[in-house]
Amino acid sequence: MKITINLVMLACTLVPTAAAAAPSAEVARKCMHYSYIAYPYQRPGSVRMSGDRQAFFRNCMDKEGNIPAPETPSSSAQRQS
Questions:
Q1: Per-domain residue ranges for the chain?
Q2: Eight-state DSSP code of residue 44
Q3: Do 34 and 69 contact (CB within 8 A), yes or no?
Q4: Range list of H helices, 1-81
Q5: What is the C-alpha separation between 8 and 10, in angstroms, rounded?
Q6: Residues 13 and 50 sit within 8 Å (Cβ to Cβ)
Q7: CA distances from 19 to 22, 43, 63 (A)
Q8: What gap in Å lies between CA 23 and CA 1, rounded to an integer?
């Protein structure tokens, strides 16, 4: 009897009380939009590629979209990259 009670108590402590919800599609769209504002598309091969856009997107998703809107880079900064 005592073993059964201990097993039930152990099972209750191992069961998560609140599951973490995945980010919504709206958050994903917002983060993708922001990532393309911060790191605009450039034709592959014309510039060296980096993982900056993907890192920005993942950071935004980790924060559930609670980040300030990025500023649009100037046109001269886009040509130099």
A1: 22-73
A2: B
A3: yes
A4: 2-14, 25-38, 52-62, 75-80
A5: 5
A6: no
A7: 9, 41, 17
A8: 44
Contacts of 45 (CB under 8 A, 6+ apart): none
The answer to whether residues 7 and 28 touch, using CB atoms and an 8 Å cutoff, is: no
Written as six digits, the tokens of 7 are 């097993």
59 CB-near residues (< 8 Å, 6+ apart):
67
Q: Provide the residue-wise pLDDT of the chain in tens; the chain has 81 residues.
A: 667 666 566 565 655 555 567 779 999 999 999 999 999 988 888 888 789 999 999 999 999 999 999 988 766 555 554
Residue 67 Cα distances to 10, 22, 34, 63, angstroms: 40, 17, 9, 7
Distance from C-alpha of 45 to C-alpha of 60, rounded to nearest angstrom: 27
